[in-house]
């Protein structure tokens, strides 16, 4: 008998924690966007795009949240930055969003919803699938990021300063993300039920 992947979403830890409680969901969204903002502040200034821990925070949050909750967390984070709250790596506001990092910010959302979607389909339960999911999420950050950067500075410069310099860091963050998600899932299964 062939294995057929269920179309019913799997339960991710943060979605389970939120349950049907609006207050818990709002708290998780606020905390998730705060974690991403804090990770943005841990950065290496580079031009035109800084290297930060944002993507690590985003891929882990998305894998632990699922599609709906990760889209809400990233949506809240982006809205906070666009309206001027200092949540982005080196600035805030609509003008910042339209600058060199704007495509990457859009990519954060795309990467998070892809990872969340796959987490809902049980990809967190398999190490190779989890690694593939987080790798895909990282790749989706670069697609609009490099494309938008190319509009501003040209393709050759965008590929060098917007992709090539980030490849090793992205691989390291993906591996760390896999370890963190697996540790969180082990902790969840070892936790006593109430």
Automatic annotation (TrEMBL):
InterPro entries: BioY
GO cellular component: plasma membrane
Single GO molecular function: biotin transmembrane transporter activity
Membrane topology: Multi-pass membrane protein
Location relative to the cell: Cell membrane
Transmembrane segments: 26-44, 50-67, 74-96, 102-119, 131-153, 159-181
Keywords per UniProt: Cell membrane, Membrane, Transmembrane, Transmembrane helix, Transport
Main localization category: membrane
Similarity field: Belongs to the BioY family.
PANTHER family noted in UniProt: BIOTIN TRANSPORTER BIOY
Record's protein name: Biotin transporter
């Amino acid at each position: 008998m062939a294995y057929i992947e269920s179309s019913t979403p799997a339960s991710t830890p943060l979605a389970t924690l939120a349950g049907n409680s609006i207050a818990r969901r709002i708290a998780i969204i606020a905390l998730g966007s705060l974690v991403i903002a804090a990770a943005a502040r841990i950065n290496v200034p580079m031009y035109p795009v800084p290297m930060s821990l944002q993507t690590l925070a985003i891929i882990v949050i998305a894998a632990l949240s699922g599609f709906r909750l990760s889209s809400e967390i990233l949506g809240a984070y982006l809205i906070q930055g666009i309206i001027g709250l200092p949540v982005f790596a080196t600035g805030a506001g609509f003008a910042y969003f339209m600058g060199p990092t704007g495509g990457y910010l859009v990519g954060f959302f795309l990467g998070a919803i892809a990872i969340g979607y796959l987490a809902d389909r049980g990809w967190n339960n398999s190490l190779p699938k989890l690694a593939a999911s987080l790798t895909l999420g990282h790749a989706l950050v670069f697609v609009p990021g490099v494309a938008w950067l190319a509009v501003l500075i040209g393709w050759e410069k965008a590929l060098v300063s917007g992709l090539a310099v980030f490849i090793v860091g992205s691989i390291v963050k993906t591996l760390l993300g896999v370890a963190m998600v697996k540790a969180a899932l082990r902790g969840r299964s070892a936790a006593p039920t109430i």
